[in-house]
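discrete fold record:
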Amino acid sequence: MITVAQLVEDVAEITGEPEKSVRNYARALIDGGLLPKSRGRAIAGVEFVHVLRLLAAVAIQPKLKESAEVVAQYMGLKREGVGDLPLTDDMPETFRIKATETVEEYICDWLEALFDAEPENAELREVAKSLQITFVMNWQEIAVSLEEDDKRLIQRFRASGQLYGHWAKKIRRSTEIAAETFVWLGHNNNRDYRTGGNIV
């Protein structure tokens, strides 16, 4: 089991952020219910979704008091162009999933594929290795790109009602996180986030 305190240490190391800053974000996310809270001897362990949320806070760098709310908003973003559509009974299931899926759910699905060791899923795992997440800092947008069949496919998740043209003339500040970040997270401290324990 990997704890929030250990996650803070590993995120600070892999991002180069001061550990105190990462710890402050972690505390704010715990208070906001986005990271697990240990109670007495019941030490809470982290999962990939918690790793993603803390990395998001460090990448976006919101004001500390607003960090839980801002991270929750970012993680709840839906696909550009389909997230605002009303759901109908005759809507195809694949389209319904695209219309309702959040960026958090989408990324976590790919992280599961990235660490899936089953031989029959090798092709999907190779695609997951190309995962690249771009957090836009000065407006609510996350772009997720993957390379498949020698093509780089980008899916953009934005806040409801936001249009690209609204931001076209603005300077975009962003932070990029690659799949390798999740693969190597904790390795220098002998921790394996795939298994939730120490590297054997």
Q: What stands out?
A: Residues 19-31 form the longest helix (13 residues). Residues 4-198 form one domain.
